[in-house]
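FAQ: What does a ligand-bound record look like?

Like this one, built around glutamine:
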Amino acid sequence: MSAARRIGDAWRRAGQRIDRLDARLLLEHVCGCSHADLIAHPEREMTPAQLARFDELLARREAGEPLAYLVGSAFFHGLEFAVSPAVLIPRPDTEVLVEQALARARRLTSPRLLDLGTGSGIVAIVLARLCPSAVLTAVDVSAPALAVARANAARHDAPVRFLEGDWYAPLGDERFDLIVSNPPYVAAGDPHLRQNGLPFEPRDALTDGLAGGDGLACIRIIIAGAHRHLSPGGELLIEHGYDQAVQVRELLDAAGFSDVGSWRDGAAIERVSGGRLS
Ligand code: GLN
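The answer part, i.e. the structure of the complex:
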């Protein structure tokens, strides 16, 4: 009877159904223990409530639900952020957006930065922390996403002004030195949306949902609105899909941007494109 409750046995059994590391992280989450506890005290007994909770999360992970939603957090740029199914799970793809934004922000004194479609707030919060002179504004159309973002900003003591609305809508005529965005850009018909954990993530954060579209509808809106919201010499940086860099550069060129370029993510894929408006 008690063998069934031992934490080490639970880990071993779960490791036959899901990835062993995921099993460990779920156990640590449910039992409030560390990796070292698990190794040092595999004989520790779980309470019936912990066992029931662990069984539930194990079944959900087995059914494909992302680990980040099950444990309620994920790491980005070395910081832990709360996540819920109201927001996308932070991805390493987005690190290059932060790097490029940071390099630009650090060249300016008290830059005004805008993050459009902030989701869990990771981009705005990391920029606020690493560039303390910057003044951050972050917009999202989703109130539940903004609640997650606000909690993350409080957790990391990051001064970010959060506004609810559709892209530039809540900003009036305000202008910024740098606009960054990780918008929805997956084409609605892309089979990627049905794979891995994506069906569990907010669809509106991944795709514009336009049947037969190219996934660039939001990027077009962001580029078009930049004229009214960038200060002279201000820059725009947008994350996009693995095969969209050429199209995004063309959109930026056509909109009158200069210094148009693309930057590669950790997987050597052109992941962010941007330019400057004079
Ligand atoms: N890079 C993400 C993916 O392909 C999509 C993120 C986004 O749409 N902004 O899973």
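Follow-up question: can I read anything off the structure? Yes, for example: The pocket of glutamine is lined by residues 91, 93, 182, 184-186, 192, 206 (CB under 6 Å).
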